[in-house]
Amino acid sequence: MAARKSRLSLADRTPVAEWTAAALGLVMTVGVVGYTLWEGLTEDTGPPRLTVTAQTATPNGATHVVPIVVRNASHATAAQVEVRAVLRSPAGVSEERRASFAYVPGRGEARGGLVFRQDPAGAELDLSVEGYAEP
Asked: What is the pLDDT of residues 61-95, one digit of tens each?
């Protein structure tokens, strides 16, 4: 009479590396689904929150370029963002410049520059976001 082979259980037949890979896949899947749900449920549904800041001006021949950064603290995207800048020197001379940004993503930023004839060093630069459109 032939000896009957005993059947191994699933846990005994499956290598440890396979169990490890399956556990890692499960953790990653649960993490991605959880993050997606959290992002969807806590999303800011308000309008774009735009701010504009200036960086250090650099001379460019007879002009001066002031790099600007428009940041959006909201999840909402802004299109056709209009920025206005007024540079007032201590002597009372002022220059006004405008810049348009086609797109500022939610939780993102856009960069550009404003060109002035007078040196911004020692002058007052007033920056403001004038408006935007919903894409």
From this structure: 999 999 999 999 998 999 999 999 999 999 888 99
Q: In Å, what is the CA distance from 53 to each residue of 57, 91, 129?
A: 12, 24, 10
pTM: 0.70
> CB of 99 within 8 A of CB of 44?
no
CA separation for the pair 80, 49 (Å, rounded): 14
Alpha-carbon gap, residue 97 to 23, rounded angstroms = 58
| Residue 76 · residue 48 · CB < 8 Å | yes
Contacts 24+ apart (CB under 8 A), 49-57: 49/73, 49/74, 50/78, 50/81, 50/104, 50/129, 50/132, 51/129, 52/83, 52/127, 52/128, 52/129, 53/127, 54/85, 54/125, 54/127, 57/116, 57/119, 57/120, 57/121
Handedness of CA 49, 55, 58, 62 (dihedral sign): positive
